User: Fold these one by one.
Assistant:
Number 1:
Amino acid sequence: MDQSVTVTVDGVTRTLSLDTRTTVLDALRERLGVTSVKKGCDHGQCGACTVLLDGRRATTCLSFAVAHEGSEIVTAEGLADQNLHPVQRAFLDHDGFQCGYCTPGQVCAAVGMLEEAKAGSPSYVTEDLTADPALDDEEIRERMSGNLCRCGAYANIVSAIREASE
Ligand code: FES
Ligand code: FES
């Protein structure tokens, strides 16, 4: 069964007629041609498909598009305007990628988790739940643990995020 869905993707509002079983990931890649959003596991385990969905990071392979009528989606492509987003710049400066397949998801997750930390949200490794969490390497690793990198660029990804958080 098809249903009409309207979403804003990287600032452009689009209306699609979609099978109700279509994921946000497949709608972005297959229908809208936003191929920066990557399909890794398609099971919510690798984070390659992460975007910012209504301001929060989300794995799009687990979300049905019809559940997001009216949503605003920002992909790694949409984070840059005239200049790269500071997180994108930091990934370049710190060699935070090798093949780059996981990078769009890593960048979106990093932007989302920096906002979460700024808002005072604790993580599993936050010791003092009453203080603003300091983003040390352990916090960054824990908060990014949903994003896997098959090239193992983790050390430089942590460096990049540490710089972007300062
Ligand atoms: S493709 Fe969505 S989490 Fe792996
Ligand atoms: S840079 Fe290759 S998968 Fe992460």
Note: Residues 103-118 form the longest helix (16 residues).
Number 2:
Amino acid sequence: MPRLTSRAEFEAWRQSILASWDPSKPCITVCGGTGCSALGAKEVTAALGRELKKQGLQDKVDLKMTGCHGFCERGPLVVVYPQHIFYQSVTADDVPDIVSETLIKGNPLERKLYKDLVTGEPIVYEPDVPFYREQHRILMKYNGLIIPTRIQDYIAIGGYQALCKALFEMSPEQVIEEIKRSGLRGRGGAGFPTGRKWEECRRADGDIKYVICNADEGDPGAYQDRSLVEGNPHSILEGIIIGAYAVGAHEGFIYIRHEYPLAVEHITRAAEQAEEYGLLGKNILGSGFDFTFKVHRGAGAFVCGESSALMRSIEGYAGEPRAKRIHATEKGLWERPTVLNNVKTWASVPHIINNGADWFAQMGTETSKGTMVFSLVGKVNNTGLVEVPMGATLRHLVYDIGGGISSGKRCKAVQTGGPSGGCIPERLLDLPVDYEALTEAGSIMGSGGLIVMDEDTCMVDVARYFLHFTMEESCGKCTACREGSRRMYEILERIVHGKGQEGDIERLQEIGTTMINGSLCALGRMAPNPVLSTIRYFREEYEAHIRDKRCPAAVCKDLITYSIIAENCTGCGVCLRNCPQGAITGEKKQVHHIDPSKCIRCGICREVCRFDAIKVE
Ligand SMILES: Cc1cc2nc3c(=O)[nH]c(=O)nc-3n(C[C@H](O)[C@H](O)[C@H](O)COP(=O)(O)O)c2cc1C
Ligand code: SF4
Ligand code: SF4
Ligand code: SF4
Ligand code: FES
């Protein structure tokens, strides 16, 4: 098809796509996101293709491999439309039954349905599964419906209409005003107002300006940006083109992790298609606006997600942060005015232009508008990607969507904001999640990482874990961060090994404060967060480690001993057979014993004992 050269041609093309799009036609979707693909989604799709052909249904039923639906731990996921019948953990062996029972007879296949965690009752329809029912999906809404590599699918759900509206009905200033009024704030960490950033760039001197999408996503465990790029790449591209028009940029980049091959493939394909149809490149849809877009792969250093390091990296230098005496909106990439926004920030833009600033601003809290996508992981029953309005409480996320604590134990804390975030204790679970509330509680929103911890978690060990990550990722340019993170880590190491000293807590606080005040970039300024927040809320755990040489959560190996509770031990011998050190002795049907001098505290005996007879203290 030749490039579209006007809005009228685009509209005619859109109408032809809509005419061939029949929402009532049976359709079976398989999640083809990275998680489900790793679990066998491609085999399921291939088996479905074969089975539909075998049953003569290939023309009557659409088969689609979509992006991530969010509930990755239950993958591979299959949804049958138009009913929205939801199947989890599907294998190729389930396919003949799904086709014969559901597609031919119209019955749900009970063994593949999600079971309610409390009642055990099967739930048939996707919108009724609590994990989905309790969410408010805007950015993630179409991930499970469209083929990400087919621009026609995106057009069918309203894609590129916001771009048309912006280019043909709005001036750049009006676009900026709309984004400002919506209250959209950056979803990559600091929550800077997006409209203000764009305005600063528009007003900056210079003919050459750039826009960049930050898809570096270095937080361990976070994958919401990857899933959006994989599942709906055109939505991000559309946001970027609108942003470029608003600020007056004619060139843009996505900086994306090299370790995200599917996301790289999909955004590259999306850009090629947009170019082919005249939505990218010279004179977009005949509007007179030119914009080119390049995909730049990052090499996987956490610090390269930081704005100035990211721009250095695109320029071809080592990704080291620079002092920000002048905003990037004035002197950014190649010293030109530049707007850098996160994937979720860009993906929000078409929704705001289509539905209006007021629609967006009605969601959320006084200062944080719209929705946020979190990657909910850790000790919850339902882990995955969840989208909720800003201001939803942590309790809602953990219990209503996450289905509560997987171990059946008490929730102890929630860590938000990735490795530079803080730990919020259970008693603050009713905290509404917005930028200010999280900062006040000693944490950050970050890019949406959310890790749930139960009472078996040692908070000193958690702080040590995160500090180790940021210490390793520090670029070493400034002393406060390079040396401060090392010294803090050394102190934490000795505390968890039972060698903590009086004054260590104060030393940690002092070094942490120096890092906050003396570091060049936010990596160093935020790195102390996990330590300072755990001292703030769990000080007694630090004291137990330092003064009593005791780990209350029974995690730190040098501070715990394993023994057998005589009253509970049946002498079954399972622990003896599984102990890797030969540390357990005992006759059959007699109480067993652990030799502390041989025990390496691996915990295997506790895992295998069915009589709750292993004590750790
Ligand atoms: C060490 C470090 C890593 C960062 N990593 C990311 C990242 O992976 N993705 C992201 O969008 N922002 C990241 N940021 C924040 C960016 O510097 C920047 O604030 C953000 O991309 C701006 O976009 P926004 O206004 O849409 O949030 C990181 C910041 C620091 C200090
Ligand atoms: S704060 Fe840390 S990561 Fe940032 S520039 Fe300094 S040494 Fe590098
Ligand atoms: S597994 Fe448990 S019950 Fe069996 S011998 Fe060991 S401690 Fe006793
Ligand atoms: S903790 Fe490990 S080494 Fe120690 S007794 Fe149990 S199984 Fe053996
Ligand atoms: S990858 Fe399939 S639900 Fe996330």
Note: The pocket of iron/sulfur cluster (ligand 3) is lined by residues 564, 569-575, 592, 609, 611, 613-614 (CB under 6 Å).
